[in-house]
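User: Here's a chain of 230 residues. Predict its fold as tokens.
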Amino acid sequence: MNDPNFLATPLFEGMAANVTPIEVIDTDDARMLANDGAVETQARYSFFGYNGQEGCAEKYNMIGYLAQPLYGIWASGPYFHNGSVPDLWSLLKSSDRPRIWRRKSKPSRFIVVMGFETDLAKGFDQSKVGWKYDTIPCSYLTFSPFNHCNPWDPNETPLIESGLSLLYGNGALAWNLLGNIVAPTFSNSDIEDRKIYNTRMFSQSNSGHTFTDVLTDEERTALNEDMKTL
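Assistant: Prediction complete.
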């Protein structure tokens, strides 16, 4: 361990840099498709491209997402690259993933919008291993370009969302156009509603990573207990 070149040895090649094709993982691909030459260049000079692994930066663009380290995974929720899954239990059992949810907030104070609950005793679910949350009914959401859900068919992909997918594909166009069409609102209620995670929105899908759906609940519990030790 006194070898100064130890950290550069092949022993660590591939750690936290494995790329599985998006077609296999089947998670939301919006962030991957948004990667451009600038992102690729930055990745090449980050830990993604350590030890001269320029291929990692190449693979990062338009193939899939680089795997992250599992160290401390119990404390790194919400999960997936877009933070769409609140706990490890839901990650391991796709049918239990909430469609629209909001992480617990700190107790409210007069005219103050509070942040998320950071007290582990109040905000952390030790059995599911992740942040406690409230599920939000589809009927709660108002019709708007940013937060929409059809209460009569929650599985529907709204036409407006399909249009936004094309618009958000061009980041500059989205910022300039939507900034003129929809003026931001700043009431406490509006700000509080921004904490809602709606998996129907563009780039926020919680699909994919269904490999562990074959496990029994007992096996998932055992796996969760094991991940607490990482």
